[in-house]
Amino acid sequence: MQTASFLFEVAVFAPLIGFLVAGCFGHLMGDNAARFTTIALMTCAALSAIGVLGFEMGDVGTFVVPVADWIHAAGFRADWQLRMDMLSVSVVAMVTVVSLLVHVYSVGYMAHEARPVYRFFSYLSLFTFAMLMLVTSDNLLQLFFGWEGVGLASYLLIGYWYDRPSACAAAIKAFVVNRVADLFFLVGISLVFIRLGSVSYDDIFAAIPYHVNDTFVLFGTHPLFEVIATLLFIGAMGKSAQLFLHTWLPDAMEGPTPVSALIHAATMVTAGIFLMVRMSPLVSLAPVTRDLIVLVGGTTSFFAATVGLVQPDIKRTIAYSTCSQLGYMFVAVGVGAYQASMFHLTTHAFFKALLFLGAGCVIHAVHDEQDMFRMGGLWRKIPFTYAAMWIGSLALAGIFPFAGYWSKDAILEAAWMSDSGMAHYGWVMGCVTAFLTALYSWRLIFLVFHGTPRDAHLHDGAHESPASMLVPVGLLSVGAVVAGVVLAPFYIGSHQAAFWNGAIAAIPGHDVIERLEQTPGFIALVPTFAAVFGIVVAYVCYIASPGIPAALARSLRPLYLFLLNKWYFDELYDVAIIRPYRAIARLLWKGVDEDVVEGIPEGLARLTAGSAGQAVRIQTGSMAVYAFSMLIGLVVLLTTMLFFR
């Protein structure tokens, strides 16, 4: 047990050491030493995490590793401890492995960066550490520390190229949108402490049976757990970029491609899913909130897929696929299939990192061009990247036997087998999205790698990436192929109960995971049929008859513009929120702050100065004037006394 806890601490804190060393001493060490240090420490973290996973699969159970005393104030207590159970250990292993591959990939991708890159590698390690603190937390406040840490790191990395106004704007947008959601999350944490008496997971879960019938009065009387679960879910919506709070995620593509891979695969966006699964004992007792989760998740998956259909930017297309896949994960949470949600989170990490790093290889090959309509015919130039993108797309589309097939189909089967009508809505949206996902994935492949080169200069200069970039891509390709079949028995199969060992709760009397094998055969095949149909349609539209998309765009121009402009969410928010906020801010600034707050003392000062100037004029120095003034004063005084006798 001591060995496991030691390895667990190494896995969590090695990236922190890498961040501190590279960040504080990188300017003295130089880029090469900083890169080597961060990668070496990430290697230690990944190997340690894999070792802990082996120990945990040996039925260690839940174990808490104390780190330090933290907050002791009156009745509030929150210590810094690492929670070691299968839920946290499995995510730590995934995060460290993917982050290590991203670190290695970044050596080649950032090789031509003009400015020193030690800061970039230190930020990657900080990002990883913050995510590890989030998933290993033993209480909600410690989780919130990691929650805000990944927000800070994403701000630093999205805006890494700070000389680009678009990158700075994207970083600020990500930070601000997440702060909106975090307000609800903080209120939820506060309500948990006030009503359940603690922020520690064990204490919260132990107190749940005693508060099942509690209510909370807010615009009416509501079940307490519904209110708490909804607040936590809104917080999760911001981090995991669900509908209405998703607008920051596509803009985050302004950062370097390795950052996109880390955000979309292993950190940041997965935090919301983890939160809901960690709080599954409470969420399971909030059926209305779970229906809301299915509604938002299913709608988000469809929305993002429709927008991905028309995006010209290769990275934004993949970014919207992340939004869509996160919607699947929330559908699984809503129907109580938490294990399937974590399964898809894990397999998605491999194939989404593969797709982003593959896209980075394409961008590297064509000299930083990201517009797919300027590419074409690249498969002969970069065959390794081409094969990797095929593997990633097959996994994303859920084609057997690739990783996405096992996890995404498990979610859809769980939605179908659930007793909830809202769950069936999630199934319908998921199946439609499966078709759209395959369609835009092969649209990307056909536009980028097939057909006639649209820019001869870009095509002629295209070249395969260096080994430092291709090795991580190759390893992720292996994960995208085998992760599903290898992990399925443990995450959702016959060994799932022993594997999770109580780390994930089931809905009382409704463990949908146990019923997956009862799914009708035709229902189980619908997602695969939809994905294959999507590939066929993409082939017809972009290879057999490439004039079809342009004709559809012309004939359905309002719909095309609606999708191209991302359902006009940014424009709507600009009109409904941004402009009124700016107007109010300007009014408070000019009308209240400058005219009133600053104006009153400045006016008094001007009045005093003016009065003093007038008083000075009375001091003439003439004795006659002074005597005459005294005479007038005496006359006024006597007149007043006689008048009021």
TrEMBL record:
<dbReference type="InterPro" id="IPR001516">
    <property type="entry name" value="Proton_antipo_N"/>
</dbReference>
<feature type="transmembrane region" description="Helical">
    <location>
        <begin position="470"/>
        <end position="492"/>
    </location>
</feature>
<dbReference type="Pfam" id="PF00361">
    <property type="entry name" value="Proton_antipo_M"/>
</dbReference>
<dbReference type="InterPro" id="IPR001750">
    <property type="entry name" value="ND/Mrp_TM"/>
</dbReference>
<keyword id="KW-0812">Transmembrane</keyword>
<feature type="transmembrane region" description="Helical">
    <location>
        <begin position="387"/>
        <end position="407"/>
    </location>
</feature>
<feature type="transmembrane region" description="Helical">
    <location>
        <begin position="259"/>
        <end position="280"/>
    </location>
</feature>
<keyword id="KW-0472">Membrane</keyword>
<dbReference type="GO" id="GO:0003954">
    <property type="term" value="F:NADH dehydrogenase activity"/>
</dbReference>
<dbReference type="GO" id="GO:0015990">
    <property type="term" value="P:electron transport coupled proton transport"/>
</dbReference>
<feature type="transmembrane region" description="Helical">
    <location>
        <begin position="86"/>
        <end position="105"/>
    </location>
</feature>
<dbReference type="GO" id="GO:0008137">
    <property type="term" value="F:NADH dehydrogenase (ubiquinone) activity"/>
</dbReference>
<feature type="transmembrane region" description="Helical">
    <location>
        <begin position="522"/>
        <end position="544"/>
    </location>
</feature>
<feature type="transmembrane region" description="Helical">
    <location>
        <begin position="624"/>
        <end position="644"/>
    </location>
</feature>
<feature type="transmembrane region" description="Helical">
    <location>
        <begin position="174"/>
        <end position="196"/>
    </location>
</feature>
<feature type="transmembrane region" description="Helical">
    <location>
        <begin position="36"/>
        <end position="55"/>
    </location>
</feature>
<feature type="transmembrane region" description="Helical">
    <location>
        <begin position="292"/>
        <end position="310"/>
    </location>
</feature>
<feature type="transmembrane region" description="Helical">
    <location>
        <begin position="317"/>
        <end position="337"/>
    </location>
</feature>
<feature type="transmembrane region" description="Helical">
    <location>
        <begin position="427"/>
        <end position="449"/>
    </location>
</feature>
<feature type="domain" description="NADH-Ubiquinone oxidoreductase (complex I) chain 5 N-terminal">
    <location>
        <begin position="70"/>
        <end position="121"/>
    </location>
</feature>
<feature type="domain" description="NADH:quinone oxidoreductase/Mrp antiporter transmembrane">
    <location>
        <begin position="137"/>
        <end position="436"/>
    </location>
</feature>
<dbReference type="GO" id="GO:0016020">
    <property type="term" value="C:membrane"/>
</dbReference>
<feature type="transmembrane region" description="Helical">
    <location>
        <begin position="216"/>
        <end position="238"/>
    </location>
</feature>
<dbReference type="GO" id="GO:0012505">
    <property type="term" value="C:endomembrane system"/>
</dbReference>
<feature type="transmembrane region" description="Helical">
    <location>
        <begin position="349"/>
        <end position="366"/>
    </location>
</feature>
<dbReference type="Pfam" id="PF00662">
    <property type="entry name" value="Proton_antipo_N"/>
</dbReference>
<dbReference type="InterPro" id="IPR018393">
    <property type="entry name" value="NADHpl_OxRdtase_5_subgr"/>
</dbReference>
<dbReference type="InterPro" id="IPR003945">
    <property type="entry name" value="NU5C-like"/>
</dbReference>
<feature type="transmembrane region" description="Helical">
    <location>
        <begin position="117"/>
        <end position="135"/>
    </location>
</feature>
<feature type="transmembrane region" description="Helical">
    <location>
        <begin position="141"/>
        <end position="162"/>
    </location>
</feature>
<dbReference type="GO" id="GO:0042773">
    <property type="term" value="P:ATP synthesis coupled electron transport"/>
</dbReference>
<protein>
    <submittedName>
        <fullName>NADH-quinone oxidoreductase subunit L</fullName>
    </submittedName>
</protein>
<keyword id="KW-1133">Transmembrane helix</keyword>
<feature type="transmembrane region" description="Helical">
    <location>
        <begin position="6"/>
        <end position="29"/>
    </location>
</feature>
